[in-house]
Amino acid sequence: MASRQFLSPIRLYLFAASLLVSIVVLLNTSGNSFRPPIIALWMLSALLWALTFTPREWNIFVCLYRLFNADWWIPWRSYWWAYLAFALIMFAGISFRITELERMPAEILNDPYLNLLDAYEFSQGIDQPVYFNYNNGREPLSFWLMALLAAAPGFSFDFYTLKLSTALASVLALPLTLCLGIEFMGESRRKAGVIMGLLLASMFAGSYWETVVSRSGDLHSWVSVFALLVTVLLIRAVRHNRRVDFIMVGLALGFALYVYKSTILLPVAVGAAVLAAMALRPISTLERRRYAANLCVTFIIALAISLPLIQYMLEYPGEYFRRAHQLIHDPATTIDSEAEYRWQIVSNVLSVIQKHLGMYNWRGDPNLERNFPGAPALDAITGTLLILGMLAVAAKLLKSRDPVLWMLPIILLISHLPSVLVVAPDATSQVPSMTRTLVALPQVYLIAAVALYQVMRQFLRTFNRPVGLILATLIGVAVAFLAYQHNHKFYFEDYNIHLTQRTLPTSDGGKILRGFVNGGGAIGNSFIIQGGDSGEARFIAAAAGVLDYPNVIYNAADISQALGQAIKRELYPLDPNRDLFFLYSPQNGETTALLDSFFSEGHLIVVPTYNPNHNYATYRVPGLGR
């Protein structure tokens, strides 16, 4: 009877509609094409698949009510202090991510530049793929969201908008940390859950690791959002074994696969967590079957959403797995002997594991674009709490069969694999990675919050209520404040100074170029002569807001040829009645002499930048047609 109710006519119609729409999406995404109308159909297919597996007695309003029921919301009258505390945490977190975003980081680097270019080309209809195979390959969701923000009034495709889009992703993750703490403690411990959520949110708000990634303009910060969302929904699904929770996990999981390749292991983590719940909980065979059926629903929905990406993977496996192959087995290795190569791999595995064990407290990501090279991912306070939290969790695991608690080490271990598996001889210098391990961030901070919660709880047990409550509150506030202060100072002072000293002031070059255009000049009449310490011309043009800048001269001897090409160009043509403008490094003395020989009426100005060791030379020539 139950099976007949499940296979109702409405459900069969929904299944047929879901299948039909998915087939249409699949046929229209072949060849790595993902046009906006097909994206709309793709999102419709996700909704249809979710409705297909929704229990018959639950309409969409019941599902939304059960999803956003009293488990999520905190009554204002009883928890006014929690609302006030979370408002302060949100203010601190937003401030850390948005303050001085225009200035810090000042310089666009390779990966953010390519991300900006991809988002721009998508918005222009130049390239609208399922998978952006430029720059070793990137999943598309972050590019779409960046393009939407850039299309909003007052924004454009520039480095600031790119940084703002990634910083806003981190801001959106903050409320999810509060939800994670509440869900982790469970409905029966509501007040404890609120406190845990506030502790977790305060640590996340002051996280150097999360902030340095989100402000860099690299699109990995959306990983944190989806990792948190999947974790929150998975806790609900594991704890209650309700169909609606598993449907929501499937939706979050499917869309998470379009963020970054490290999320590809999230389905493994979800499956492992549910299997652990089936094994650990003392439940009936019928309940285990419900777990198995609900897990299948999760994977079917995630599979339906990820079909275009899977199709690309099958059509272009070399492109999709190119970066992974380089990091795991680099064909360019200089080791000749196969035996020697295998021994090197074994040695690298041990070395990589050792590096990851120390990434939180000893030595972290060596990449300048996303870290002060070698600095640990966590500050000393949070790192200490992580160690204490691991010990506390390990002690509880020995006597607990709570599947939610077992989820922590399961997901933590699995989420490190994208970085741990970087064992190619020529790639181990890139580990540990603060971006490939972002999926682990919710578990890392949750474990640290568990330790802080236990410390505060011990104060409550040791002292009578008024004194214990005051001391516990002071401990929680002090830890959050000191960690925030340290990370804030470290990012805006130490990391900023280190980054500024090791990058060229191309942002100032962009301001100079934009000043010429805004002062009556024309883009087609401006030229960037690359060389010396001028920095890459594409970064200067991006800082000026011109991603399709055409006038880059790589050799000063080609100036006359570049002028001839510019005057024939349809986009940004050279206007002979306007001034010519050349931007280059003053170190190129030969360039100045060459320009003097070409243009007797030109004049040179050396423009200082924020870095006194790297300035720019501008050479302006009155219009040739005057």
Any overview of this molecule?
The chain has 626 residues and is mainly alpha-helical. The protein contains 27 helices and five strands. It has helices at residues 2-6, 9-28, 36-52, 60-67, 80-98, 110-123, 141-151, 159-185, 190-205, 208-214, 221-240, 243-256, 266-280, 285-305, 307-315, 317-320, 322-328, 338-357, 380-397, 403-415, 417-420, 441-462, 465-501, 506-518, 537-543, 559-568, 589-598, and strands at residues 526-529, 552-553, 580-584, 603-607, 616-621. The protein has a five-stranded mixed beta sheet, sandwiched between helices. Helix 8 (159-185) runs antiparallel to helix 10 (208-214) and helix 24 crosses helix 25.
Record the SSE blueprint:
Layout: H1 2-6, H2 9-28, H3 36-52, H4 60-67, H5 80-98, H6 110-123, H7 141-151, H8 159-185, H9 190-205, H10 208-214, H11 221-240, H12 243-256, H13 266-280, H14 285-305, H15 307-315, H16 317-320, H17 322-328, H18 338-357, H19 380-397, H20 403-415, H21 417-420, H22 441-462, H23 465-501, H24 506-518, E1 526-529, H25 537-543, E2 552-553, H26 559-568, E3 580-584, H27 589-598, E4 603-607, E5 616-621
Parallel strand pairs: 1-2, 1-3
Antiparallel strand pairs: 3-5, 4-5
